[in-house]
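Ticket #4471: structure output looks truncated?

Reporter: J.K.
Steps to reproduce: submitted the chain below (65 residues) through the standard prediction queue, then opened the result file.
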Amino acid sequence: EQSEQYEVIYGDVAAPLARWVVEVTKLELTASVVSNLQAGLMNGGFYVRQQGTYAVSTPTYIGQI
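Returned output as attached by the reporter:
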């Protein structure tokens, strides 16, 4: 790949409550952001997928808050 990016999704993959694009395999969330996510969708799941030059990978479930 020419570049490495990851899309991290919270909630439904098709209609996420929140979405981040990062260039490293790490995402840090503040306590305030976590609180807002829980208020919007209690026990929501996180998914990650790699964004390549020509395609996006299938989302992988990585856990809950």
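Triage note (M.O.): checked the attachment and the full token line is present. The two ends are 31 Å apart (CA to CA).
Status: closed, working as intended.
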